[in-house]
Amino acid sequence: MTIHLRPVKERDLPFLYRLTSEPDSTGEFQWYGFLNPHRMSKRWEDNGMLGEDGGILIIAHAEDRVGFVSWSKQIANTASYYWSMGLIVAPEHRGQGYGTQAQQLLVRYLFDHSTVNRIEAATEITNVAEQRALEKAGFTREGVLRGIGFRAGEWRDGVLYSMIRSDLDEKP
Questions:
Q1: Using CA atoms, how far apart are residues 47 and 152, in angstroms rounded to an integer?
Q2: Which segments within the chain are labelled E, that is strand?
Q3: Phi-psi region of 138 (alpha: psi -120 to 50; beta: other; left: phi over 0)
Q4: What's the CA gap between 89 and 44, in Å, rounded?
Q5: Which of 6, 86, 88, 89 falls between 20 and 30 A from 129, CA-CA?
Q6: Pick from 115, 149, 129, 116: which is nearest to 87 by CA?
Q7: 8 A C-beta contact, residue 162 and residue 142
Q8: Domain count, the chain
Q9: Which runs of consecutive H residues, i.e. helices, occur in 27-172?
Q10: pLDDT digits (tens, 9 = 90+) for 81-137
Q11: Full residue range of the structural domain in which residue 23 is found
């Protein structure tokens, strides 16, 4: 089960819209209501979903789209920044290890192509599957973020994970 990450192509835009805007596809932890159907195409036309402040890549298994990973620049202070990352795997591909592999690939990509020392990811405290995937990918649980995210009419706690560059050196 080998996957790879690739840039978004114009034909991927309906797939991205499905995973971010359709309640049956976003998953329980990513449904935030209907979104502007043109926002993805505008972003793709602007920079192909790859910019200095973040990006989106398709998770692919052979020629099949499995999901997508995303990252965005977070300013730490006047001298440094870090990446915050996330992903959505299509419902028909969940539970097969694609998320863990995609996170590992994105971490390697971001460390190889930027000078950041830290990459972080967060998920809702009840999203146990994502917490397991992050831990399998080599992330360290840092703590609980109380009342961090609003979804489905209520504030929810989150869990913050991180990986720093030296963590890669410690992996077998």
A1: 31
A2: 4-7, 50-51, 54-61, 64-77, 80-89, 118-124, 140-151, 154-164
A3: left
A4: 20
A5: 6
A6: 129
A7: yes
A8: 1
A9: 39-47, 98-113, 128-136, 165-170
A10: 999 999 999 999 999 999 999 999 999 999 999 999 999 999 999 999 999 999 999
A11: 4-170
Tell which residue, 116, 123, 157, has the closest CA to residue 139.
Answer: 123
State the CATH number of the domain containing residue 20. Answer: 3.40.630.30
pTM for this entry: 0.91
| Nearest CA-CA partner of 22 in 91, 87, 102, 123 | 91
Least Cα distance to 67 among 87, 89, 50, 86 occurs for 89
Tell me how far apart the alpha carbons of residues 168 and 172 are, in angstroms, rounded to a whole number: 9
51-71 residue pLDDT tens: 999 999 999 999 899 999 999
